[in-house]
Amino acid sequence: MDFILPLLLGFFSAFVGLLAPGMLNMTAVRTAIEQGKKAGYLFATGAASVVLIQATIALLFANYISKNLHILDNLRVGAIVVFFLLAIFFFTQARKKFKAEGKVKKGNMFLIGIIMSSINMLAIPFYFGLSTYFTANGTLVMKQPYISLFVIGASLGSLSIFYMYVYFANLISKRAKFIASNINYILSGLFLLLGLVTLLKM
C-alpha cells in the first residue's frame, strides 16, 4: 500500500490537472479527427512523456525545500499561492469564450507532442503545489522510491487523459465548449478550496 499511494496520487494529480479541454487535449482531438487515431495516440504519448521530466523537476525542488526546515513555511506559502493562481486561471478559462481548436501540424506526431507539452508553463508549478500539499499532510513521503512512483503515476495519468480525448475525439469536439466551461469551474473551486485549507492549517 505504501508504494501504491504515491502512484495513485501522481495519477490523480495529472488526471485532474489535464481534465479540462486545453491546447494539448484539443490538439490530440483534432489530430485524431484529421489524421486518424494512431496519429492522435502518438501525439498523446509524446505529450505524456514530458510529464516525467516536469513532475521530476517539481518534486525534486519540493524535496529540497522540505529538507530545509527554515524555509518550510515558505514552501507552504508557495503552495497556497500556486493554488490560488490555479483557481483564478481555471475560473478565467471558464468565463471566457472557449474555442475548440488545436494546432495540428504534419510530421512526427510523437515529437510534436513532446515539443508542445514542453512549453506548458503550468505543469511544474502545478505538480510543485500539489506535491507540497500532499507532503505537508503526511500523505506523500519526499524520498525515493516514493518520488519516482509519484512521477510515474503522473505520467500514466497524463497518458490516460490524453488517450481518453483521442478515443472520444468526435464526441468531445462537438461538446468541447460545454465540457470546458463546467470542468474549469469545478477545478477553480477545487484549487480555491485546497488553498483555503492549506492557509487555515498554517
UniProtKB/TrEMBL annotation:
Compartment(s) of residence: Cell membrane
Record carries keyword Transmembrane helix: yes
InterPro entries noted in UniProt: LeuE-type
One biological process term in Gene Ontology: amino acid transport
Spans through the membrane: 6-29, 41-62, 74-91, 111-134, 146-166, 178-200
Signal peptide per UniProt: none
Keyword tags: Cell membrane, Membrane, Transmembrane, Transmembrane helix
Membrane topology annotation: Multi-pass membrane protein
Coiled-coil stretches: none
Chief location of this protein within or outside the cell: membrane
Gene Ontology annotations for the cellular component aspect, listed alphabetically: plasma membrane
Protein name, entry field: Lysine transporter LysE
Source organism of the structure: Aureibaculum marinum
